[in-house]
Structure formats: structure tokens, C-alpha cells
Amino acid sequence: MLTVALPKGELLKNSIRLLQTVGLDFSAFLDSGNRQLQITDASGQAKGLLVRGQDVPVYVEYGQAQFGIIGYDVIREKKPQVAHLVDLQFGYCRMSVAVKASSPYKLPVDLPPHSRVASKYVNCANEYFDSLDLPVEIVPLYGSVELGPITGMSEAIVDIVSTGRTLKDNGLVEITTLYESTARLIAHPLSYRLNTGNLYNLVERLREAVLTPA
After folding, report:
1. What CATH number should be reported for the domain holding residue 57?
2. 190 and 163, same structural domain?
3. At residue 214, does pLDDT exceed 80?
4. 134-178 confidence digits (pLDDT tens)
5. Which pLDDT value is given to residue 42?
6. Number of domains within the chain
7. Three-state secondary structure call for residue 76
């Protein structure tokens, strides 16, 4: 039996909807009264694991799930050893650098050397500023990153932006986009190569469902 790792949060509903198009129903995860973290699809074809988004590639990499759905931002940050298979074309967001609207910095290169930049995407932030040859101190924060510039702890943030409303409501503005992100289908490389549980066929059906939406 195949096991799929599904992300809690904003990607979950669309992930479940997509899987339903290929006959896998994990909609019980959407029931507010359900506290189960592992369920079996009604057809008995697969199990579903409900995990934090950051943990999806971990479960897939270690083979506890043969495939999973997660945002490209997580793949880019964690660089897991997984097969990156399909852009699922939902969950759009972007990784951006933002500063206070009143800041004199209009571009990342305007930041003074050794400025503080708050982010939970530490690797992505480091890679980006290294590419600019601009030495900065990355301050790891894992909630309310916007408070970095507001409190004066950091001059800028690197964070995921969807609508931009949270930034605007907190007096911040984007000054550049590092990359765009959507939900991606990933798989355990060996399971995919060996076609465990007819995984290859399932992946192709999901790919077709994405390319020819109802």
C-alpha cells in the first residue's frame, strides 16, 4: 500500500481535491472533529499522513511515505533527497525581501554590509545575499517574521508572500522577489524507480489531471 504525506495548512484542501481526481479520498483530514494523523483511503489503495509542511520531504526522503505534496519553497530551503516530479500549479506564492515602507533601502544591494535580515528560510536567505556578495547576518525567526523590522531587530526580512496584505498591514514593502513557488509532487527516489505500488502510473495520472483540469 502506498503512503502519501500531506501538508497541514493552506495546501491541504487543494492537495486532497487533486488526489480525489485519481480516486484517492483523504477528505476526512478536513473534518474539524477528526484528530487522526494517519488514515486509509476508502478504496484501500493508500494511506495518508497529515504532517507539518516542513516535515513532508523528511517523511518522503526516509521512505515512510512514497510520495508527498509540498511547496517549492520548502524544497528549495531543505534540499531533500527526493524525486521532484510535477508542478501542481496551485498554492502560488513568492519568496521576497521586504523592508519597512519608510526605509531608505529600495533594493537589497542598498542594505549596509552586516545588516540583520530576519527569516525562517535561513538557507535561501544566505544563498541569495551570498550571490550579491553582500555580507549580512541572518536572524532565524519562525513566527511573525514581520516583527523584525518593526521592532528594529532587523533591517529586512526574507519571507513567503502570497497576497502581500500582511506586509502592508504591518507597514512593510517588498523590494525584490527571489523566486516563485507552487505546490509540487515529490516521491521517494527508489520507490519511484522501482515503481513501488504502481507509483509511476499514479504520478502520470496526477500529471494528466494537472494538465487537463476539469
Report:
1. 3.40.190.10
2. no
3. no
4. 999 999 999 899 999 999 999 999 999 999 999 999 999 999 999
5. 82
6. 2
7. helix
